[in-house]
Design a protein that fits this description.
The chain is α/β, with parallel strands linked by helices. Helices cover about 35% and strands about 20% of the residues. The protein has a domain of about 230 residues: Rossmann fold (3-Layer(aba) Sandwich), CATH 3.40.50.720. It is globular. This is NAD-dependent epimerase/dehydratase family protein.
């Protein structure tokens, strides 16, 4: 049985990927700080959870590991801008360090999930592919690009390294997020019949369902190294390249109640269309989900009560809440406790 290490295993993508790997017969070492709770992962005899910061991951954790899927990241642009140094340390430095340790300890494969946000702003008539110049505009995108540059040179005949640049992810997950475009649109439609949309709607963005991108990761675990080693693959589908105004209109058409669009904010300068021909032609992989299907999936999950708490669904808000309470608890703690303290006698 092959063992796969997944960092960021308790997050939005990891909590979909880990059960999928277990169902496929892999053993999994799930590495995470578990900011969103360890309950997002199933209990399973072939699952080992390692509560650790990726910046402090010890070499012994890599024992008997066949492959690493290095998902760990401060995971969106607003969080990246507020926590710039942590984003640099986690999204860039820790992942390069993990790749070096994996190679040293005899791991066979290393998969770096990166982001199509590296392409940044592109002219409306340009469709970028893996050979196109990048234009990262945010701390999050820049850290991903530096991680790519750090891990790809490690590829050799004994160590397969592959980078996937994921389109903007959407769809239901045990650790659901509503700070992602399609998920946020579905939430607005469910809560008040309004889809929030950043101006001016003409910006292009590619999308991929969380089930599709995790399927691609599983495929790369067994793909021929001659095809994937040292390569970058965009992961998404051409049919899921949308102008956001068009996307919102399509989603209103599948939601089972009247929905309007509410514009907000300044115009979003991140705009890019992406080609996914390389992964389709090289590996025969295609995304299965449409944006409308994903939005309806989220809407139905909300209607069925499958999102019991909204507290953790906006990543930046949850990070900020943890930091606030960390300070409160730290300030209130004395002698190792708050009400029950160490060193007292009955």
């Amino acid at each position: 049985m092959k063992t796969i290490m997944v960092t960021g295993a308790g997050g939005y993508i990891g909590s979909v990927l880990v059960p999928k790997l277990l169902d496929k017969g892999y053993a999994v070492k799930a590495v995470d700080r578990f900011f969103f709770g360890i309950d997002k992962l199933p209990q399973h005899p072939n699952l080992v959870t390692i509560k650790e910061d990726s910046r402090r991951l010890k070499e012994e954790a890599f024992a008997d590991v066949y492959a690493v899927i290095d998902l760990v990241a401060i995971s969106n642009d607003p969080s990246g801008e507020l926590f710039q140094e942590a984003t640099h340390q986690i999204n860039h430095i820790s992942r390069v360090s993990t790749a070096h340790k994996a190679k040293k300890l005899g791991v066979k494969r290393y998969i770096l999930p990166s982001s199509c946000s590296l392409y940044g702003f592109q002219a409306p008539d340009v469709i970028v592919d893996e050979t196109s110049p990048t234009n990262p505009l945010t701390t999050y995108a820049k850290a991903n690009e530096m991680a790519e540059h750090g891990v790809l040179p490690l590829a050799d005949g004994a160590f397969t390294v592959v980078v996937i640049r994921q389109a903007t992810v959407y769809g239901h997950s045990p650790r659901i997020r509503f700070d992602l475009a399609i998920n946020g649109m579905a939430l607005g439609a469910y809560q008040n019949g309004v889809i929030p949309l950043m101006r001016d709607g003409s910006q292009w963005r590619p999308f991929v369902h969380v089930q599709d991108t995790t399927d691609a990761m599983c495929l790369l675990l067994e793909a021929d190294p001659k095809i994937i080693n040292g390569e970058i693959f965009n992961v998404g589908s051409g049919s899921n390249n949308y102008q956001l105004g068009q996307l919102a209109q399509e989603i209103t058409g599948v939601i089972p109640k009247p929905v309007t669009i509410a514009w907000y904010g300044a115009p979003d300068h991140r705009s890019y269309r992406v080609s996914f021909d390389k992964i389709e032609k090289s590996l025969g992989w295609q995304g299965k989900w449409t944006a409308a299907q994903g939005a309806l999936e989220i809407y139905n999950a909300l209607a069925a009560g499958e999102v019991p708490s909204m507290d953790q669904t906006i990543t930046l808000d949850w990070y900020s809440e943890l930091i606030k309470w960390h300070k409160i608890i730290k300030d209130a703690t004395l002698y190792g406790g708050i009400l029950d303290i160490q060193g007292t006698s009955e």
